[in-house]
Structure formats: structure tokens, C-alpha cells
């Protein structure tokens, strides 16, 4: 891949935690580099993978790709938080290394940001894909006036790979909980805390 210099401060920082899934990571990275909106940085947080993840990363020479090597000891929140701390974009978009985005994802989110000045978080729908076939559509939301109560009493209604969050809010709230008893629900707990900081906006579209 040709090296691309980008002197602009990135609008998006894309945080991708990964561990021993090199080929899936490659697929995820390709979906980011194929975006129609290109003002971003990518922060891959590698939990000291033992497969050929480093070979995949070395195959990209784009200066927007940054790599952090960590030992998260099974706490994926630690990887995401490291990415948040290193990010410099105005907004942080999370992407798990076994997920992919549609090419227009960042462009659509940027348009929504400009149309909804009060929102601190955006989330969109997803396809559940098995062996290359769409199985079902995951619908998230909806946006309600009392989002804190909605989350607390009715459960999680967001997906991390579909969430884009204001970086200043992510840092103010100190990111995902790294408590060991919150593993697998650290995202849900974070959304609950974030719901006290501002409005959530849901796009009724698979991206």
C-alpha cells in the first residue's frame, strides 16, 4: 500500500484492539482504508499477538496507522483505553478486529455529527454475518430523553464496533472500566456512565 502523508489533524481516531487474529485484522484494516472519508488515524492495540499479526501490520506503510503493543491480561478495556489515551482525533470510533465497516461509514457519521451538535455519541445498526452470508440485522437504540434509565432498566442497546464518541468525553469519563468483574460488560457499563454526559444518536442504517 502506498504511503499517504496526512498533515491534517485527524477528525476520527479509530481504535482497534486485537489478539491473534491477523487475517481478520487485515480485513478490518482494509475496510477502514477504503472509507470514502479519509481524515482519520488508526490505532491498533495489539495484545502481544503470537500469530502473524506483525507481518500484516508491516504490510501497511500508511503513516496514519499507529501500533501499540500491550499486555492487557484478559482485560480488553485496557487495550481500548490505551487507544483512547493515544488518540488525537476529535472523535473516537471503535472497531473490533473481527468486524468490518461499509465504505461510507465515517462519511455518514461525520454528516450526523454536524447535524446533531448536542450529541456526544453515535451508533448505527449492524449485519450479523456468518460465513459471508447475512443472517440478521442488529438494531440499536432507540434514542430516548432518559437514556440513563433506558440503559439501566432495559439493558444494553449499543455495539462497540458501531459506536463513535467525542474524544474529550471519553477522556473525561476515563474510558472503559478495567475491573476484572466487568469483563464482557465493560462496554455496557461505559454507555451507562456516558448517558449522563450528553445525548446519544442512533442511525437507522447498517454501516
Overall pLDDT score: 95
Shape: globular
- Class of secondary structure makeup: alpha/beta
Give the ordered list of helices and strands. Answer: EHEHEHEHEEHEHHE
Taking pLDDT < 50 over at least 5 consecutive residues as the criterion, the unreliable ranges are none
Assembly context of the chains: single chain
The proportion of strand residues reads: 25-35%
**From the alpha-carbon coordinates, what is the Rg to the nearest angstrom?**
16 Å
Per DSSP, the total helix count is 7
Report the helical percentage: 25-40%
- How many runs of DSSP E, i.e. beta strands? 8
Main β-sheet description: 8 strands, mixed
CA distance, first residue to last residue = 24 Å
Quick take:
The chain is α/β, with parallel strands linked by helices. The chain is 30% helix and 26% strand. Strands 1, 2, 3, 4, 5, 6, 7 and 8 form an 8-stranded mixed sheet that branches.
Question: Can you characterise this structure?
Answer:
The protein is of the alpha/beta class and 207 residues long. The protein is 30% helix and 26% strand. The chain is built from seven helices and eight strands; from the N terminus they run E-H-E-H-E-H-E-H-E-E-H-E-H-H-E. It has helices at 22-33, 53-58, 76-86, 105-115, 147-154, 167-172, 186-194, and strands at residues 12-18, 40-46, 65-69, 91-94, 119-130, 133-138, 163-166, 199-206. The longest helix has 12 residues, at 22-33. The mean pLDDT is 95.
